[in-house]
Design a protein that fits this description.
Structural class: alpha+beta
Bound molecules: zinc ion
Strand content: 25-35%
Largest sheet: 5 strands, antiparallel
Distance between the termini: 22 Å
C-alpha cells in the first residue's frame, strides 16, 4: 500500500523517535509499504517519520543507481534501531534532495565514512562500515530518525533563499507526482 509522504512542516519529522521490538504489530507489512511508497515516489531512501511514524526505522534501495555504477546493484536494506557509532573521513559536498521536501536540491557537506550498528528486518544484528554515496544516503536517512532534515545542514543564507518554497510546502502547494500530507490543506 502506498502511504502519503509527510511534507516539511509536519511535526513528526522533528519528533523524537522510538526503538522497535520484534513484537511491533505488522512490522513486515509496514516495511513492505515503505518500500512501495519509496518506489512509487522514485526515491532511494525513506524513513519512518516520513510516513508519519515516530520510529527508528528506515529503508534504502540503491538499485536505481546500478545502471550507472554496478556497485549499487542489489543494495536493498532495512535499518531498525540503527546507531551511527562513528563518522570520519573527508568532508564531501554533494547535492541532496528529499521526498519530504519536493523540488528542493541543496549542497550538503557530510563525512565520507560511517560505522553503523543496526538490526535488519529479521532482527539480525549488523555492524558495518560504509563510504561514499552509501554513507551519504544512510546519513540522510539516519538524520530523519534524529529529527534532522538536509536543509538543517545548509547555510543561513541558502535557507533564506528557499524560505518561500518551504512555506509553500507547509501549505501543501507543491507539484509532485506522489501522495503527500502537508500541515495545512
Ligand atoms: Zn529525506
Amino acid at each position: 500500500m502506498i502511504l502519503p509522504i509527510y511534507l516539511y512542516g509536519q511535526p513528526v519529522l522533528r519528533k523524537e523517535t522510538r526503538e522497535l521490538d520484534k513484537d511491533y504489530p505488522k512490522l513486515d507489512e509496514l516495511i513492505a509499504n515503505m518500500f512501495e511508497t519509496m518506489y512509487n515516489a522514485e526515491g532511494i531512501g525513506l524513513a519512518a517519520p516520513q510516513v508519519g511514524l515516530d520510529l527508528r526505522l528506515f529503508v534504502v534501495d540503491l538499485e536505481p543507481l546500478a545502471e550507472d555504477d554496478p556497485k549499487y546493484a542489489g543494495f536493498k536494506k532495512v535499518f531498525i534501531n540503527p546507531q551511527i557509532i562513528e563518522s570520519k573521513g573527508d568532508l564531501v559536498k554533494m547535492n541532496e534532495g528529499c521526498l519530504s521536501l519536493p523540488g528542493l536540491s541543496e549542497s550538503v557537506e557530510r563525512e565520507s565514512i560511517i560505522r553503523i550498528q543496526y538490526l535488519d528486518e529479521n532482527f539480525v544484528e549488523h555492524d558495518e562500515v560504509y563510504d561514499d554515496f552509501f554513507a551519504r544516503c544512510i546519513q540522510h536517512e539516519y538524520d530523519h530518525i534524529e529529527g534532522v532534515l538536509f536543509i538543517d545542514h545548509i547555510s543561513p543564507i541558502r535557507k533564506q533563499l528557499i524560505k518561500s518554497k518551504l512555506n509553500s510546502m507547509i501549505k501543501g502547494k507543491v507539484g509532485c507526482h506522489y501522495r503527500t500530507k502537508a500541515v495545512q490543506k
